[in-house]
Write a structure and sequence with these properties.
The chain is 46% helix and 10% strand. With 123 residues, it is mainly α. The two termini are 29 Å apart. InterPro entries: DUF5319.
């Protein structure tokens, strides 16, 4: 697994205590939701990647900017949450083409139609 750089202030007790991450344990419902999201993402990639889509765009309420996540990055983040209860640190997409990203709702609707056309066994 990827190791993050060491915090240069890690030995400072005031800094370490103030910035200690709060990571509550995942309960069964959270874990089930993450597994469902991961399953959906795998389907999204299967049906949308051949159409030229690279991932999902999410409107960030904190910064009022869209964030672009490739299929692989988002799946790695969900797997990290499931395995280690934390998401990997990542760099934002560099100069993403918005035309290559879809919203989660669009991906779900497209995938639902694809499943109706091709059947559940095709997934």
């Amino acid at each position: 697994m990827y190791e993050e750089p060491r915090d240069p202030f890690a030995d400072d007790p005031d800094h370490a205590e103030a910035l200690a991450p709060f990571e509550p344990e995942l309960d069964d419902d959270d874990r089930a939701d993450l597994l469902e999201d991961l399953h959906e993402l795998e389907l999204f990639e299967k049906v949308l990647h051949p159409q030229g889509y690279r991932g999902v765009v999410v409107d960030c309420a904190d910064c009022d900017e869209p964030h672009y996540f490739t299929w692989g990055l988002l799946m790695a983040n969900l797997r990290g949450l499931l395995e280690a209860n934390c998401a990997q640190v990542h760099e934002p997409a560099f100069d993403p083409d918005p035309a290559h990203y879809v919203t989660w709702d669009y991906a779900r609707g497209f995938s639902d139609c694809w499943l109706m056309t091709h059947g559940e066994d095709a997934a």
